[in-house]
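Q: Convert this sequence to structure tokens.
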Amino acid sequence: METKNASLFRTIFGMMMNPAGVLRNALKGTKWYFSIGVSALAFGLFFIQTGLDLYKTGQKGFWFVLFCLVLGLLYGMLAIPSFAVVIWLVLKVSKAKTTMLETISAFCLSYSGALIYGLIGIVFSIVFGWNTSVAFGVTGVLWAIGPMMYTIRELTGGNHKLSIPVSSLVGVIVLLSWSLLGRF
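A:
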């Protein structure tokens, strides 16, 4: 069990620092539901930071914090894999030889950095009382764009023409949808 936990830990940090290496070595052994769990936790932590920031400034009540947590978990479980399915369809058109579950796993694991930033942001929010959704949450999502580019490039066999615009577009969509959260 310790080896499996060490492997999962290595996969999360590895995807943040060396996404191409993780994709080559670990993706085949990483279960799709673990990958979706990474993105769900990443967005749950990111969105709850937003809720906490608005709660601490008196703009929203405590129920909004819980709403943000649930919405973030759902976003990471449903929206991010849905984006991955769309990307998989694009990859199929470009004749990539990857399965839909491999694409979902790789895409969701791209948010490993956002998970790490989310954990650190929650600590700073709770312990030090900082407003952290921009400093840690947005930074984590922006950090995910790099691994996403590598992921798409690996899945397309090195095609840069798809990786940069697609990952940038997904990053923009994620940040725009997050910006709507404070307007509820």
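The longest helix spans residues 62-93.
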